[in-house]
Design a protein that fits this description.
42% of the residues lie in helices and 23% in strands. It is of the alpha/beta class. Strands 3, 4, 5, 6, 9, 10 and 11 form a seven-stranded mixed β-sheet that branches. Helix 5 links the parallel strand 3 and strand 4 (138-145). The longest helix has 29 residues, at 75-103.
């Protein structure tokens, strides 16, 4: 009659709890007993004894002798201790090697950005790129300035790793990381008939009589409602085009406050009824759902999230 040897419960699988038990076992061996290991492990002798009993049960092996005669390892205990050192050393080497990948990032990061965001006060995009280059000096950054719809398509088909776009109609194939809330006001330029009027003398009816430049790009329903009240007699495909037309002194138009700031400072523009005529656009970083893991992109997204608390 053959005797079947009992297979250890750890065969083929090691759980986090097993690693904890092995670390306790290692400390006990190196301290020379349960009592001496209490200080090193910062747990009670009873907890150590319980952990050792659990490990012996998991391995189906007697690892040590403990009692009045003191602590000593069994033959099996000495072998398990040697294997334990190999395992924990390999785990530490794995952790160090994976961490070293972050210190030697190489490759490209392709980013699509909607126009005229560089004047944003909270420079999260720029700060995150700077931090990424510090992590990986050999990373090659490619930035493409294109309309939001083209950015979305390029992220979906993999030509861009990441895009920065206004959130108009979220697409199911994209993940969105909120970045900015951008406020836009209605402006006119020095020389325009409305420029010298005080806010108290301005009315919506007056404003609606003047030629306005409107955005030719996609907008939310809320923003479109703001434009509907204006006398649209010109259009522009981006904010720079809107600014060009406002600066002629012949048109009024909406611009982001951060973009118009330089002309306000110079006394070249003014906002018209800013408490009433304004809207907010939300911007987000977009990535493709289910895209293959990319260490450079993952690192950049991590830095973008961290920048929320640093800006």
């Amino acid at each position: 009659m053959s005797i079947k040897r009992k297979t250890p419960a750890l065969a083929g699988q090691i759980a986090d709890a097993d690693i904890r038990l092995l670390r306790i076992f290692k400390a006990v061996v190196e301290c020379g007993g349960f009592t001496a290991a209490e200080v090193d492990l910062n747990i009670s002798r009873a907890a150590i004894s319980s952990a050792m009993a659990d490990l012996e049960q998991r391995l189906s092996l007697r690892l040590c002798q403990r009692g009045r005669s003191g602590f000593s390892l069994t033959d099996e205990g000495r072998e398990v201790y040697a294997y334990c050192l190999q395992l924990l050393t390999a785990m530490e080497a794995f952790r160090t090697q994976v961490n070293s990948l972050h210190a030697h990032l190489k490759g490209e990061l392709n980013i699509g950005i909607t126009d005229n965001l560089v004047t944003m006060p909270r420079m999260r995009i720029t700060h995150a790129i700077s931090a990424l280059k510090e992590r990986g000096p050999d990373i090659h950054i490619n930035i493409r300035m294109t309309p939001p719809s083209e950015i979305e398509i390029a992220v979906l088909d993999g030509r861009l790793h990441l895009g920065v776009v206004p959130v108009l109609k979220p697409l199911p194939g994209l993940d969105y990381l909120p970045l900015y809330d951008e406020t836009s006001l209605l402006y006119c330029c020095k020389g325009h008939p409305l420029f010298e009027l005080a806010d108290s003398d301005l009315t919506l009816k007056q404003i609606e009589k003047h030629d306005a430049v409107v955005a030719a790009y996609a907008q939310t329903a809320e923003v479109r409602s703001q434009y509907q009240a204006l006398k649209a007699s010109a259009s522009a495909s981006d904010r720079e085009g809107i600014a060009f037309l406002i600066l002629t002194g012949r048109y009024i138009g909406y611009l982001p406050t951060h973009y118009a700031e330089r002309w306000l400072r110079e006394g070249q523009m003014r906002a018209l009824l800013p408490d009433q005529l304004q809207y907010i656009t939300q911007y987000a970083a977009i990535t493709r759902k289910g895209a293959r893991s990319n260490l450079i992109l993952d690192s950049y997204l991590e830095l973008l999230r961290e920048s929320e608390h640093q800006s």
